[in-house]
Amino acid sequence: MIGLNDFMLVSVGLFCTGLFIIVSKKNAIQILIGIELMLNAAILNLVAFGKYDRMNNGGQMFALFAIVLAAATTAVALAIILNVYRKYKTINPDKVNQLKD
Amino acid sequence: MNPNLPYNNAQTVTLAIIAVVLPFAAFVVNFLLLGKSKAAGWVSTLAIVASTVLAANVFFKVWGSHTIHLQQVWFTIGATKVQAGILLNNLSVMLLLLVPVIALPVHIYSTAYMKDDEGYSRYFSYLSLFCFSMLALVVADNLIMLYAFWELVGFSSYLLIGFWFTRQSAVIANKKAFIMNRIGDIGLLSAIIILFTQFGTFDLEALFGPKGLIALSNITNGQWVSASGSIPAVWQYVAFGGIFLAVAAKSAQFPLHTWLPDAMEGPTSVSALIHAATMVAAGVFLLGRVYPMFNDAELTVLAVVGCFTAFMAATIALTQNDLKRILAYSTISQLGFMVMAMGVGAYSSSLFHLATHAFFKCLLFLVAGIVIHQMKHIKDDNHLDIDPQNILHMGGLRKKLPVTFIAALIGGLALVGFPLTSGYLSKDGILIQAFDWSDNRAGILKLIPYVALFTSWLTAFYVARLIVKVFFGEFRLQKMNPHIHIHLGDGGWQYKVPLVFLALCCLFPLFSYSPVFYEDAWLYKGFLQANFFARENLYHVLIPVTVVILSVVVIYGAYVVYVKRNSWSFPQTGFLYRLSYHEWYIDKFYNRVIVAFILWLSKALYWFDKNIIDRFVNELEQVSRNIAGLAAWCDKYIVDGFLHLIANLVAAIGNFARRFQSGKIQYYLFSMLLVLIAVFIFKLIWT
């Protein structure tokens, strides 16, 4: 029987993978993928905790809402990455450092 | 000024002041305005002409009638008021007149004599300054002014003796004159200080006047008692010693006389002025001013020193070959006579001799100037290597320089003291009074008048030698160099007029209507101390006759020896000859003993300075350098180090902090993650 713990473990694995990708990758697209992974870990948690909610399907609803939101933010992020590429001819976040002192 | 004085006196004082200040004005004009212009000579001469006229005016108003003393407060120190003013009595007006009367011919003579010199205007500036200092010296009414002008006379003579300052010998001579005079100045200054301490005033009349403080003071029980207090009597002798030193330095008396012969390095016209009226007269004048302070023992010292100086200088003059040196020693000898006269109480004779000596000595020096000038021309024209002042090269000049010869003859006879000349009157006065004085003395003091008498024969001899060698016989220079080209002459009116004027002044009518009796000279009437008038004893007849007869014999002897030269000549190897020729070895003695001692002392002090003081200073320097080094180290490594530490710390913190602002977004995220993890870890640990 798959219990809450199993969900949580998968979610932690996803979250950590996403976090590692964000911190270590040198490509903005990959970082975006990492963010998505972390978001999905959170959404997975929402769905898993939704079983214990007093209201039925409240978690699933919230998860759907978050997925839509994530899609929107991903679109925005991709647009930003495109603009960054136009300006800097690169999408390595280390090189995009004009704001530093 | 004192309003109670009659108008007439105030006017006289004004005239006197103008007479004194005019040469100074000439000095200022020459020095500041004229530069190298030839007008300087005429400015100075005009000033001295005006001075002469004014001084004569003052002289006839004051002489024999009354004393004018005008003064006002100069400055006040505490309760002591120092007055400055003018004191015109017989003594000062006599010198007030004498100085410009002598200086005038010298000025006229100098306009020709110094004509081709580069320092023409400088010469006349100095000459005017010299006359001014002397004139101011004689009219000063207090010891401070007297001292100031005394110094100024010394200083201006220093300038004139070293006039040709490019010559090493002139520089040495004027240094010597100045140092000798400094010794005298110290004496005068200490005497002034003692007198002020005792009497509380500098006023000459209050001190030395007929009813002055000196006259009222006396020595009782070893104390010098005066109206204002008493001090040990020894100070009276110290004051005398100081005055004596001053007189000895200025008037070239025995221990300090050696500067005068060396002062011949100046132009001859300056020598004429120094020897006649300005410089050396100052010493005798000072004696005349302070005469009342001397007691019997001190007067005896003066008599002995004067007599010795006269004798010594006369013996030296016998063998010298330098024309001006002979005259210089004769001046010293005559000054010795004057000081001796002061010592034997022949106050008025001394001053009388000062006046007559001024004329004939000035005349003789001007003659010497002409002769030297001519010899120098011969030397320059023929490129000879001779000393133009050496009388051994001269001879037979009487036909070539007739006016000069006559003048020299008159001056020489006056110096010897021949009848019909002024020198006869004054010198016999001194000798007679010296004999009168020695009647009451015992022992060696009896010798003094005889030594003086002997000196006057020596005088006759060296004067005769001088005149014979220069003017008689044959011209030895021509004899030695037969081919030299010679043209000689007396020179223009600037030479002749002064000579004639001074020669006339050397004759008796200027001083007395009687050519024989010195007591009839009008100068005697002016001085109070003249008390030897009575022709009470044999001396008054015997001495003049002896002097004259023996002088004639001596002069004839000299003539025979030096002109004929056929029978006998003086040995030139004996001890006496060497003693005289080397000027009694006094200069050598001074050089060996005093100068050497002072040099040794200064070397010792130099060593002390170098090895002790300098070393101490160096050590001190080293110590302070070390301390400073320590301080620098502290500063650098402790104070600065502390500051650097703070600065570095701040920089390190800054560098550490700026690493977080790298602009790398992942780095920020990682930091946040770390912080977050840290927060959780802490939370776990503490709970």
Automatic annotation (TrEMBL), chain A:
Gene assigned in the entry: nuoK
Subunit-level organization: NDH-1 is composed of 14 different subunits. Subunits NuoA, H, J, K, L, M, N constitute the membrane sector of the complex.
Protein name: NADH-quinone oxidoreductase subunit K
Similarity comment text for this entry: Belongs to the complex I subunit 4L family.
Gene3D superfamilies, alphabetized: 1.10.287.3510
EC top class named in words: translocase
Its EC number(s): 7.1.1.-
Keyword Transport: yes
GO biological process, alphabetically ordered: ATP synthesis coupled electron transport
Primary localisation category: membrane
Swiss-Prot/TrEMBL catalytic activity: a quinone + NADH + 5 H(+)(in) = a quinol + NAD(+) + 4 H(+)(out)
UniProtKB/TrEMBL annotation, chain B:
The keyword NAD is annotated on this UniProt entry: no
UniProt KW keywords: Membrane, Transmembrane, Transmembrane helix
Cellular compartments per GO CC: endomembrane system; membrane
TM regions (residue ranges): 12-33, 40-60, 91-111, 123-140, 146-165, 186-204, 224-249, 270-287, 299-319, 326-348, 354-372, 401-420, 447-472, 493-518, 538-562, 589-608, 637-656, 668-686
Domain NADH-Ubiquinone oxidoreductase (complex I) chain 5 N-terminal: 74-124
Subcellular location: Endomembrane system; Membrane
Protein name as catalogued: NADH-quinone oxidoreductase subunit L
